[in-house]
Amino acid sequence: SSRVLWTLAVTQLKGSSKMPKTFTAAEISKHDTHEDCWIIVRKKVYDVTRFLDDHPGGGEVIVEQAGGDSTNAFEGVGHSEQAKKDLENYYIGDLSEEAGSATTAGAAASASAKKEESSGGFSKFLVPVVIAAIGGVLFFLQKQQA
Hints:
The protein is of the alpha+beta class.
């Protein structure tokens, strides 16, 4: 029943011009600035440029991931179900199945390494969070002793 509907939907999509566009990792890696920001999440490509200024965590945390695979960063932060749904508003296509996943991984790793060099990487965000967490624990322990 639902499998039949899914098969029909896929068949109709294949026969239409509405098939998702595919992008290579090399193409995506060129979109890595605040003015032109693409990310990959679960092998889907999103142009999040127009969302950067509205991101609750600041646009810079997204730009650090731009041009590469952001799946781990996106999932690791613990985005809400609503945020996951909202991401679909920026969907522009799929990551192509290139000649071997090494090419995809290499281009994504290259983009990620470039971001690490230019921005200090995710550690710029992580260090203050860890310091705040330690401060919170110390405050809690001090309150317990008083």
